[in-house]
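Researcher: Next entry in the queue.
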Amino acid sequence: MHIAMVGSGYVGLVSGACLADFGHNVVCVDSDQKKVESLKAGKMPIYEPGLAELVANNVRHNRLSFTTDLVGSVGKADAVFIAVGTPSRRGDGHADLTYVYQAARDIAAGLDGFTVVVTKSTVPVGTGDEVERVIREARPDADFAVVSNPEFLREGAAIDDFKRPDRIVIGIEDPRAETVMREVYRPLYLNRAPFVFTSRRTSELTKYAANAFLATKITFINEVADLCEKVGANVQDVARGIGLDNRIGGKFLHAGPGYGGSCFPKDTQALIKTAQDYDAPIRIVETVSAVNDQRKRAMARKVFAAFGGSARGKTIALLGLTFKPNTDDMRDSPAIAVVTALQDGGAKVHAYDPEGMEQAKLVLDGLTYFNDPYSCCAGADALVIVTEWDEFRALDLTRVKSLLTSPVMIDLRNIYDPAEMARRGFAYSDVGRGGKLAV
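Model: Structure for this entry, 439 residues:
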């Protein structure tokens, strides 16, 4: 099949490369000439494990290409995917659909023969109706169908998620579109991936509902962790005890500094606003969002507590800046709030992240960056682990202790064992497991 992917950001680039790897002919379209030239030169605009190799392989086999020519690409396509950004709109939290509707207008100009227009971007309920209206208004003669096909990609594991999905949700209003979409994803039949065909609005809501539910699980276990600290319980054991119940499941029950990234914060806000607009408020999700925002900054108080309530004049070594491992994404990362709170409290922050430091420099000021965990720790008064990169899981603790001016570790991801850290002479604080030693 011939597929045009409008937008070559995270979702568009991963989706386009994977569809090309299935054997389709895919052209990724982007209005940014510099990005297109970089992609043609093999330079990825994002960090995602395995993506550079996947792109290079499919470019080499002439299945994947990059261009700024949207109209020409659409005219040859059986399916056109809209994979542009839908950030939170400033001021009100609604999803900003400017790029989606502009893409629809641009697509309209290039339509030639029956074409399926697929919204891959995360969009509020009813967006597909408006996309159809925009295209129909611009091209009354066009033969097309608008489909909702939300992505469920985890940053850091996106390629595997695309190729081995838990499910493929497709919202259609025109039965002809089902035939095209089944052909697009035909290679996944071998993996017996479940196809969920729904109405278009149901598909759009499914994406938001899924992210809001996962965000709720994270926030729930974080609040349980706070209770564990008060009553002397261990949140990891609690999570295992409830997670083994098949009705609950163990995923997303890891206590920490709160969720971030490109999806959960903006998608929960968009769902909240949509529900309010339809006079059907979702109070649980409203609370989840509020609690998560408060939690990130509250994590800095664990650092202050280690020094008797104030870290003024202290130097803090911070490991991990991105919102999760295996990505360079800093959007709504807990590290932003933690760093800001530490700086507001008069502390100086040293920082290291395997992939996220260039992106961090765009959103954080006043940090001193280092090239490895140990140089970051040298001369610092405490070590804070914010993101659980694999290379932080087996640090040379003897070396770390010798580099710090005081043996203080605040482990916001519960990587290390409190008893072992105490045996090694660390003043160790974690999240919900009882590690809360003061210097």
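Model: The mean pLDDT is 95.
Researcher: Noted, moving on.
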